[in-house]
């Protein structure tokens, strides 16, 4: 009976956490460069049940009782949310006409799990990576993100554009009054190993762009979120139904436990 409580409760908890991930995806369906979170479920290890008994062996002294175990079957003890990982697939590219908007479009990548990122610097001075190219120019003439983080060049320095009048080539060169600044585009051979932070930022190990990698930087465009809103809504409804089913099972166990306490206790 108590194992049933645990199994039903674990199902409810895992579905609740999946709903949180799906809700976050829906909330960011219009966020440029957002990568949808994917969840994976895993069952707890199964337990093999045995019935403990005894067997009598005839002896000259009248018999010998030996303990024996007869297998009954396996018992699954529930499910849990194993991990949440971003889907680093390319989002659709939409033209905005804003010169400070940049879209990073993947071409040929050497690794199936690899991805390219813009390099930025957060408020603490730490390097972070993003696919959100919704940039602007601050009051001092530096290219920054919508959160005010500096966009870095390939040398790790902030980019001075001295205003909105600048051009970005397809290979990522910012051409401004102060000179040409190659954007700090970095490559992660396994983007799944990066840690997702808020504001569309990632942290982790990246490196130089490998030979043979192709990409384009499109000025005046933005990469959209790769969230499939219709599919996500369907998944949310399915998760809600599974949660309600586990809830009904838990209620049934609770009612049976109540009868066991009140009715069976009276028979004693």
UniProtKB/TrEMBL annotation:
<dbReference type="InterPro" id="IPR053967">
    <property type="entry name" value="LlgE_F_G-like_D1"/>
</dbReference>
<feature type="domain" description="Flagellar basal body rod protein N-terminal">
    <location>
        <begin position="7"/>
        <end position="35"/>
    </location>
</feature>
<dbReference type="InterPro" id="IPR001444">
    <property type="entry name" value="Flag_bb_rod_N"/>
</dbReference>
<comment type="similarity">
    <text>Belongs to the flagella basal body rod proteins family.</text>
</comment>
<dbReference type="InterPro" id="IPR010930">
    <property type="entry name" value="Flg_bb/hook_C_dom"/>
</dbReference>
<dbReference type="Pfam" id="PF00460">
    <property type="entry name" value="Flg_bb_rod"/>
</dbReference>
<protein>
    <submittedName>
        <fullName>Flagellar basal-body rod protein FlgG</fullName>
    </submittedName>
</protein>
<dbReference type="InterPro" id="IPR020013">
    <property type="entry name" value="Flagellar_FlgE/F/G"/>
</dbReference>
<dbReference type="Pfam" id="PF06429">
    <property type="entry name" value="Flg_bbr_C"/>
</dbReference>
<dbReference type="InterPro" id="IPR037925">
    <property type="entry name" value="FlgE/F/G-like"/>
</dbReference>
<feature type="domain" description="Flagellar hook protein FlgE/F/G-like D1">
    <location>
        <begin position="114"/>
        <end position="176"/>
    </location>
</feature>
<feature type="domain" description="Flagellar basal-body/hook protein C-terminal">
    <location>
        <begin position="218"/>
        <end position="261"/>
    </location>
</feature>
<keyword id="KW-0969">Cilium</keyword>
<keyword id="KW-0966">Cell projection</keyword>
<keyword id="KW-0282">Flagellum</keyword>
<keyword id="KW-0975">Bacterial flagellum</keyword>
<dbReference type="InterPro" id="IPR019776">
    <property type="entry name" value="Flagellar_basal_body_rod_CS"/>
</dbReference>
<feature type="region of interest" description="Disordered">
    <location>
        <begin position="1"/>
        <end position="21"/>
    </location>
</feature>
<dbReference type="Pfam" id="PF22692">
    <property type="entry name" value="LlgE_F_G_D1"/>
</dbReference>
<feature type="compositionally biased region" description="Polar residues">
    <location>
        <begin position="12"/>
        <end position="21"/>
    </location>
</feature>
